[in-house]
Specification:
471 residues, alpha/beta, Rossmann fold, Isoleucyl-tRNA Synthetase, Domain 1, four-stranded antiparallel beta sheet, 15 helices, 17% strand
Length: 471
């Protein structure tokens, strides 16, 4: 078994501040990184910010700041909020880092000299919101599905193209054949099918530079053009390993990302790596979106949920739990304050918190002694779900254990038992709680450690409620 594991989130675009979409991906990646660390792996966990492009320059101008000053300010909102959610990333990369820029230019030069980049005129529809050319078939009622309020403009310019079409047969074979030397996994299965269908329907070469966007990485052979922001961003996963002297972590084991950027990661990124003669990442996992009370999240609707709001209402571990329990992998998941609060109260206040309070009170009241904690490993069934990135299913397993233990208390009424029978009952309960807490360590690190400390033994005392009910 390999001892090194490299896990990434996307790097987030600095035209906006962190919201629940960014938060869900980053919390999920942290849970997976913590799980792998518990399994004894040497983990490199990367996140960061994507800082070039026309949208950033436009947003900076609106605030009366230079693009660099603007990106410094917004990038900080990401790098500083994650530790507040107990997200323990190993490195935070910024695409304005001079080392990143230098490495990207060196790779581009290699691809260009190989003949995989050429100059041509391009006329097409351009979505300013996505900062990319978009095809007629991708539009819904003449608008980009991700930016329905932004105009689609027709643009013609001479720029540089990457020979994406050249690599399509190799990519199809690499995805379909698990024994292919270049095989990489796309998960869940439905997302893999989508990518393959699109690859097989025909793929054009890709415009990778802009002549009219100054805030970007200049092409090393033509300084009048800058690299298209999404190409710049993709290289972060590789450049980070060189910047941090972790070259031996490449290729990445897992790119965790939202479904809207699956094509970039599953196809464009892989083709660029093939051209640059670099190893391909092992798995790309694309999750779905959160809907907020049945609607897409947007500033205009005023339904944006920020990580600060989640922490304020539910606490750090409460927020982490709710994200894991609702992490959308089988279609978009409808959430909102009402649903989150109901789940917090049922699972944490009435479920876990109630169980800990009831058992610790019985242990203290009868002044019983217990063997010291012995459980060191996450249970097999939870491990299986975490290995498959099924976070909500892992939570369901843990929740079933909590419910089962609460039900056992209700049915067996331990307070009515005689000394020896009570001790037998509580011995089982204490061991079950220790296992539940160990299973929760990647999800709710602080709470899980508190429970393990409280139930370490030999004596067990009642403490303040872990999760007071929220109205």
């Amino acid at each position: 078994m390999e001892s090194k594991i490299y896990i990434t989130t996307p790097i987030y675009y600095v035209n906006d501040v962190p919201h629940i979409g960014h938060t869900s991906t980053t919390v999920a990646a942290d849970i997976l990184a913590r799980f792998q660390k518990q399994e004894g792996k040497d983990v490199f966990f990367l996140t960061g910010t994507d800082e070039h492009g026309a949208k950033v320059a436009e947003a900076a101008e609106k605030e009366g700041l230079s693009p660099q000053a603007f990106t410094d300010k917004v990038s900080k909102t990401f790098s500083e909020i994650w530790p507040k959610l107990d997200i323990n990333y190993d490195y935070f990369i910024r695409t304005t880092n001079p080392q990143h820029i230098k490495i990207v230019q060196e790779i581009l030069e290699k691809i260009y000299k190989k003949g995989d980049i050429y100059k041509a005129k391009y006329t097409g529809l351009y979505c300013i919101g996505c900062e990319k050319f978009i095809t007629e078939s991708e539009l819904i009622k003449g608008r980009c599905p991700l930016h329905p309020t932004r105009e689609i403009v027709s643009q013609e310019e001479e720029n540089y193209f990457f020979r994406l079409s050249k690599y399509v047969p190799t990519l199809i074979n690499a995805i379909e054949n698990e024994n292919h030397p270049l095989h990489y996994k796309i998960s869940p299965e439905g997302k893999r099918s989508e990518v393959l269908a699109r690859l097989k329907s025909g793929v054009n070469d890709l415009s990778i530079s802009r002549a009219e966007v100054s805030w970007g990485i200049p092409l090393p052979w033509d300084k009048t053009q800058t690299l298209y922001v999404w190409i710049d961003a993709l290289f972060n996963y590789y450049t980070a390993t060189i910047i941090t002297h972790r070259e031996n972590f490449w290729p990445a084991d897992l790119h965790l990302l939202g479904k809207e950027i699956l094509w970039f990661h599953a196809v464009i990124w892989q083709a660029l790596l093939l051209s640059a003669e670099l190893s391909l990442p092992k798995e790309i996992f694309a999750h779905d979106f959160y809907l907020i009370d049945g609607q897409k999240m947007s500033k205009s609707l005023g339904n944006v949920i920020s990580p600060e709001d989640l922490i304020k209402k539910y606490g750090v571990d409460g927020a982490r739990y709710l994200i894991a329990a609702t992490f959308p992998t089988n279609g978009d998941n409808d959430v909102g304050w009402k649903k989150f609060t109901e789940k917090y109260n049922s699972d944490l206040a009435n479920g876990l918190g109630n169980l800990i309070a009831r058992i610790s009170k019985l242990c203290e009241n009868y002044n019983l002694k217990f063997s010291t904690g012995s459980i060191k490993s996450i249970s097999t069934e939870v491990k299986e779900k975490l290995t498959k990135i099924k976070l909500s299913e892992a939570i369901e397993i843990i929740l079933t254990k909590i419910d089962k233990e609460n039900k056992r208390i209700n049915e067996e009424r331990p307070w009515e038992k005689k000394d020896n029978d009570l001790k037998i009952f509580l011995n089982v309960a204490v061991e079950n709680i220790r296992q539940i807490a160990t299973d929760l360590l990647p999800f709710m690190p602080k709470t899980a450690r508190e429970i393990l400390n409280q139930f370490e033994g030999p004596t067990i005392k009642q403490k303040e409620p872990l999760f007071p009910r929220i109205k």
